[in-house]
Amino acid sequence: MPKLLIVDDEIDIREFARNFFKKRGIEVFTASGGSDAQEIIDHETPDLVLLDVRMEEITGVELLRNVREKGNNVKVIMVSGVEDETVIGEAHNLGILGFIHKPLVLDELEKIVLKELRPA
Q1: Is the sign of the CA dihedral 116, 97, 105, 56 positive or negative?
Q2: CATH says 3-106 is which class?
Q3: pTM of whole model > 0.85?
Q4: Residue ranges of the domains in the chain?
Q5: Per-residue pLDDT tens over the stretch 39-56
Q6: Alpha-carbon distances of 18 from 59, 90, 118, rounded to whole Å
């Protein structure tokens, strides 16, 4: 079963996306911040991470940098309601697959996530 980690400080978004993808046969983990997310990445080895850019504890880019520095090349798609070219550029340099803008469009999100989690 594919594993998805959703990292977002907004509980409504986390829970809605978790329920949405669980119904599609995906094992879903959620985290509200960077330290929880790092622990899940280290111990559960998700196949894909949906990572919010702006969080209170540390930013999504800082978490992504930490993950990459540990040598983990997990697939990451960044999610944000703010368009900041500097952040987008830095995230791309750290090897993200893409960038999804909030508010989330479920059809688009589903298509992208299922494409990445589909067996090769």
Answers
A1: positive
A2: alpha beta
A3: yes
A4: 3-106
A5: 999 999 999 999 999 888
A6: 21, 27, 18
